[in-house]
Each structure stands twice: as C-alpha cells, then as structure tokens.
C-alpha cells in the first residue's frame, strides 16, 4: 500500500502515486501472461465492503478462486458509515487502501474530479464498452463531469412507495388516492391518520429526499448543474420543502430518524403507513425490521408518476492501490458486475437488485413476494429501473445534502421561511462548489 499525503510527509506521495499509475497500462499483466501462469508465487487481493454487499462478495469467492487458485482474498467488512469513513480517509491520504472497494452511490460524488479512484474509461479498463449492458441511469451515475468512469454498478435501488394495505383499507384509501399526485399523497395521509392513528411516513425529510430526485432536467445533478452552479432555489427544491412542511404542520410524520430504534418500532407496531425508499427496503422489512408484518405491505410506483433512485452499490479501484493487484481487482469487478449468473445469485440470496440488463428476462422477477401479499413487486421495480434518469454526481454532493437537511430542519422545527432557508442553502452550497 502507498502512504503519505501529497509529498508533505514521509512515504510515497499521492503525486508519486499518480505518476506511477500513468504507466500502468503499458505494464499491465494480462490474464494468461507469464506473470499470471500457474506455479507463480501466491497473489493477494483485499476487498473492502459493507453489509450486505460483503455477503455477496464472500459468496462469489469460490467461483473467482476456481479461476485463480493462487490468489488469497481478504474481505474487510465494516458497518455502512464506518466503511465509507474509512474509504474516504484512505482515498484522501492514499494510505491503508484496499485493492478494491464498494461504494454506495451517494458517496461517489465525493471522488468526482478528484484523484482517488481509477478512471475506468481509460485503458486498460475501457469500461465504456460495457455501458449498454447496464441499466442506463446506474452506469451514468458513475460518470463525472470530465467523462471519467469512477466505478461500475453492481446493484441498484429503484425508488418505490411501500404502504400498509390494511391501514389504507381501514381508512377507505386506495392506492390511486395515495399516488395520483404529491398533494393527494398528503391528503390520503390525513385520512389514514384520522382513521387509524398511524403516521403517513417516518419523517417529513423523507418526502424531500424523494422529491428532489425527481423531475431533474437533462444535464443537471442533484444539487449542481454542469457548470457547478447550485440549484437549491429552483422550483424542485421549493416544492419539496413546501410538501415537507405541510406534512409536519399536519402531524403526519412520526419525526423519527432512519435506522433508529423508534423508526424500526414504528414499522413493527403499524404506526407508520408508508415508506418511500429504494426497493431494497422490502427485504429489510421482511428480514429483520418488521417480519411479523408479512403480507400486510404492498408496493407501488412513486406519487405523480415520478421515478427516482434511492441507493445502489458500485465497485471501484483506488488509484493509489498496489499496481500489481489492479488486474485481479478489475477481473473481480467484471465478474461481479457483468456475469448474469453472479448478478442473479446476489439478487436471489441478498435481494441485491441487479444493474445488469441481461438479467431482466429471468423468471425470478415474476415470482410473487410473500411479504407483499403475493404481489410481483420485482416487475414494478424493473419497470422503474428502466425509466429512471441519470443524475450527474458532484464532489460536493454530500456537503450540499447536509446543508439542505440543516435548512429544512430550521423550516420544520424553527419556522424559518422557506425562501430564506433555500437562499441561505444556495449561498453556502455555491461557495463550496469548486473547492
């Protein structure tokens, strides 16, 4: 591994790392070359992953080792937040780097236009040749504004609305009432709250999170356009703040944070009627969050004909990782992302919704899901995946998200005017645009 920071401390600098990486293509040890022949000294590969991607990786190791019996593989698994903190630090300092890392989509932007990740568009990777094999929005999410391909997608999170059919029935609310528009979604929530006492959703912030990911114009990112101009004062954000405030003012949200104990308990007790999130949430509800509610949930597309993504996993190669390990790391990425068999195995075992289009004709998509009352939810999510538009990543996306959340909380909890909150967020986010 490489260490040091920009040549200011002992050990190889990031600048030296980049200089060495520039000549990597010429020295690339291709499969079948003498350096990879049987009988050579053992090779080593380190893969960093988070749950449940680590299980998918570990399940794939026997197939990879069958082709590479002289390779020892270590999988370093950390909890989601700890993993991304460790990877951010490793990429920033060019030290303690794995040979291969998994990244959740919201973290990709941190490394856009930076020096942290290999550009897989360049030789010897030439990843753009595989572009048409993936769900378009998933592949394109990993392309930064310079055209660099930062990673390859392995699973995706098509946005969906999960709802408690029993609570809606008690309130006399139909799925159409819930999804016709964002306003009708809130109106339906008022009826559900009155009839059942259940909250419409866990937190008013949830409606903002989905709404700002819809109706994005071509060439725009979530928070910035192609020229790194902030987009926070646009109608998209204004409407999202308005609806979030309406939810809070009408006491339709439980005011609980995702992944908290109160959040989970709300699902278990039937105190929360809907959840807008990625399709992966159904598996979490079934597997450990609220298994006793099986059969009571249904899935639909998002309100107002919206399509948005929520979550998704990518494989990336750190630019300053050990050069001799990069051919193996690339082979592992190609197996995990381009193998129909591997993508379907991960789908069936861990509900990792595949990014590879050639899996989409598999009968597994048509199978009823018991947790959803026998509904064929995967067909719904497959259709959504094909309709979602790519959102360009920006290196300041994470910072922008924190600023927007802070300003929304001021609107919801302190009565700050929406126009002022958005203007303040716009100013701060713009000031960081080119750092």
Protein topology:
Blueprint: H1 14-22, E1 43-49, H2 53-67, E2 71-77, H3 80-93, E3 100-104, H4 105-108, H5 136-141, E4 152-164, H6 165-171, H7 175-179, H8 182-196, H9 204-211, H10 235-249, H11 261-268, E5 274-278, H12 280-289, E6 297-300, E7 309-316, H13 326-338, H14 340-350, H15 377-387, H16 397-414, H17 418-431
Parallel strand pairs: 1-2, 1-3
Antiparallel strand pairs: 3-7, 4-5, 4-6, 4-7
Low-confidence stretches: 1-13, 19-23, 29-39
Tell me, briefly, the overall form: globular
For the residues shown, what is the average pLDDT? 90
Q: Percent range for helical residues?
A: 40-55%
Strand fraction band?
5-15%
Distance between the termini: 27 Å
Total DSSP helices: 17
- CATH top-level class of the largest domain: Alpha Beta
Question: What structural class do the secondary elements suggest?
Answer: alpha/beta
Q: Please name the CATH architecture of the largest domain.
A: 3-Layer(aba) Sandwich
What is the radius of gyration? 23 Å
By CATH's scheme, which homologous superfamily of the largest domain applies?
Answer: Periplasmic binding protein-like II
Question: How many strand elements?
Answer: 7
- The helix/strand series, from N terminus to C terminus, equals HEHEHEHHEHHHHHHEHEEHHHHH
Largest sheet: 7 strands, mixed
CATH topology of the largest domain: D-Maltodextrin-Binding Protein, domain 2
| Overall tally of domains | 2
